[in-house]
Amino acid sequence: MSETATPSRTPAAIPAEDAILPFEVASLDLRGRTVRLGPALDRILGSHDYPLPVAKLLGEAIALALLLGSSLKFEGRFILQTQTDGPVRMLVVDFTSPGRVRACARFDRERVEAAIAERAASPGELLGQGHLAMTIDQGTDMNRYQGLVALTGGGLEDAAHEYFLRSEQIPTRVRLAVGEELNAAHAGPRHRWRAGGMLLQFLPKSAERMRGPDLDPGDAPEGTRPHVVAEDDAWVAGRALIATVEDIELIDPALSSERLLYRLFHEHGVRVFRSTSVEATCSCSRQNVENMLRSFSQDDRDHMVENGVISVTCEFCSSNYVFEPAEVAG
Ligand SMILES: [Zn+2]
User: Which of 148, 134, 152, 146 has its CA nearest to residue 84?
Assistant: First the structure.
């Protein structure tokens, strides 16, 4: 991510669609990013026929993956994946820097429909128990780093907070929102998807203010949690401000990220950096699918033949690739 400051300019009134905007509130040692998604989210969710709450949940996962993945300081991939026992078994968001993203969900349609009927289809209820894994992949000769956090009935915001508290020990708050904008007045699609998110972190420059996380509990009684994140006044203020952000402010097509940041932090001074565009593209191709099919045994391929052809559908973008068996024979 480029951290070079852009020259000062008039804040955009209209939100930059499909963009990640880093910002800084230097007087409070706060750094963060916002994400706004419109057409890119339509493109991803439009290629699937997910039930509404599943689509919304995947939208939240996409916003979260973009907020986290866009902080990578190198070219690489960031994969956010849930694996749980709820009606939505798996969410996968595959982000490639600087801003390419694809995503899909695996779920049990009957259980999702039952959850909707019982009004028990909140993100936490759809996910259930399990874990959220975050993998960073810098290429073939680099290590893959995996961060893992338990999902225990809460949503993705909760999981992100838990991850940063336990693993990174950086005071962090995340807000995520997904909604549909009805398009009654115009011809074209019935509705458009919108998602928004904000990540806020307390990253003090002075070592003294980093006190807390790694200190030995010392004289504290047995059983005291050793990791107590510093409750610096600046962080208390930052946390209180992001807590006031309403879902509608994150997705309102008439409110830009700059305006929202100004609304929140104008008393403390807020600076935005260069934004990054988000593009919903899939990396699948006919050639990749062909190579994958060739890597199977002849016996495996024989079992894939249906009505005389092998048909493969990309789980991320629903592109369908059809091969004559002879085309992919080893
Ligand atoms: Zn694809």
Answer: 152
User: Alpha-carbon distance 14 to 81, whole Å?
Assistant: 32
Answer yes or no: are the C-beta atoms of 253 and 194 closer than 8 Å: yes
The answer to whether the peptide bond before residue 87 is cis (omega within 30 degrees of 0) is no
Helix residue ranges per DSSP H, 49-176: 52-69, 109-117, 123-127, 156-163
Rounded to two decimals, the pTM is 0.87
Instruction: Count CA atoms closer than 13 A to 329's CA, side-chain side.
Output: 4
pLDDT in tens, 241-288: 999 999 999 999 889 999 999 999 999 999 999 999 999 999 999 999
Ion ligand 1: protein residues whose beta carbon lies under 5 Å: 282, 284, 314, 316-317, 319
| Kind plus residue range of the DSSP H or E element containing 174 | strand 172-182
Which DSSP category does 298 fall into?
Answer: H
On the question of pLDDT at 86 being above 90, the answer is yes
C-alpha to C-alpha distances, 51 to 88, 105, 134, nearest whole angstrom: 11, 11, 25
Q: Identify the three-state secondary structure at position 97.
A: coil
CA atoms of 133 and 98, how far apart (whole Å):
20
- Decide: helix, strand or coil at residue 170: coil
Degrees, nearest 5: CA angle 89-127-107: 30
73 alpha carbon – ligand 1 mean position (Å): 26
- Measure 31 CA to ligand 1 centroid, in angstroms: 34
